[in-house]
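tl;dr need the bound structure. longer version: we got a ligand (S-adenosylmethionine) that a collaborator sent over and nobodys looked at where it sits. i said id run it. heres the input, straight from their email, havent touched it
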Amino acid sequence: MTAFNDSTVGNPDALRADMVRALRDQDAITSSRVADAFAAVPRHLFAPDAPSEIAYDLHRTVPVKKDEHGLDISVMSAAHLQAVMLEQLGAGPGMRVLEIGSGGVNAAYLQELVGPDGEVTTVDIDRDIIDRARLCLDNAGYTQVKTALGDGEIGVPDGAPYDRIIVTAAAWDIPPSWISGLTGNGRLVVPLTLRGTTRSIAFDRDGEGLVSDSYRLARFVPMQGEGAAKERKALLRDGVAVQTDDERVPLNTKALNHALGTPRREFWSGAAYDLPDELELYLTLHLSSPARLHASKAVVDSGLLDASTLLGVPALVSEDSIAYRTRRENEDTGGFESGVVAHGLQAEALADEYLKLLRRWAQNHRRRGAATIKFLPGPDPSTLPQNTVLKRHGIVAVSWH
Ligand SMILES: C[S@@+](CC[C@H](N)C(=O)[O-])C[C@H]1O[C@@H](n2cnc3c(N)ncnc32)[C@H](O)[C@@H]1O
């Protein structure tokens, strides 16, 4: 949470200036264009029911609408994430931009970035949200931003082609309209979920497909409508769940739960553990039968599973066994060493595959931005090339350099 001093409490202008300074300090804002946009937009007017301190907090979202289970389906995204994504987007004067998922404030930033000669359209699937966004935009003086009601899966063809498209809900796939709706050298920034983890990826159009060297971990409310994620989830026991978006992965609830009841085996890689988001991308693309293992704090406190499972960890599963990453302190280096915990009859074989990947990553790819991510649209291939994730509208292929 951002710390506020007495002079900023209840003073939106001072809070805004502090926010911009802090976003720069944390490298979320790296250009003066984005800094100017954040300095210009009265953010608190887009969260009229929240205290200004929360609206201007770098890392807090403001709830806007919840579903019948009390889960957020619309929030005002945190300033830090918005800044990172707008830097990835690179919107400039005169551009036409489409935002999918509305709230108002991000569209106002976009309007500042494209200036009076540019055009911003924002679309939301929920009438309450788009009506609210319209009201807030008008109140804040951004009457020129266009608002539309609809499923962002089909884009907003009326305004296409766009120089930039930015998606602000977690997408599981990239529908054709997001590529065909871009200009030849357009850019799409999308929080794309790969094997249970969402990253904001800045894709440049590359012919019929997309290519990216820019990806950052991000958390978002899920996309609704036609493009909603279809993942399999299995609750193994109270507080332990496994999920996967790979149809080939077996999720045998009973056998996997039984495996957890067998003694844990620990294996150590001797390799360094850091840059968890980079390592995770590598693991999930290379594990032969990947899933994501989550455990509650109570389960971790009981000693059944390691703390690495608290936020979800890449797991390798077979019919009756499971292996996942762990870490321990390395006294020699002062850092951490990666390792594997495995349960079940095939514990050793699964750990062996997992350890090889931990070592290969540490040896060859242990740095920021080592991956290039491509989206190749088209029908299901009969055989899936290595290091790819199959989606409904194409495949995601990742290469490391
Ligand atoms: C995190 S909020 C958007 C935040 C917003 N961009 C801001 O300025 O802070 C995500 C929004 O995506 C919307 N959404 C979800 N699925 C959608 C879809 N298929 N098409 C358009 N909007 C969608 C939700 O209704 C929700 O309002």
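gonna send this back to them w/ a short note. The longest strand covers residues 182-194.
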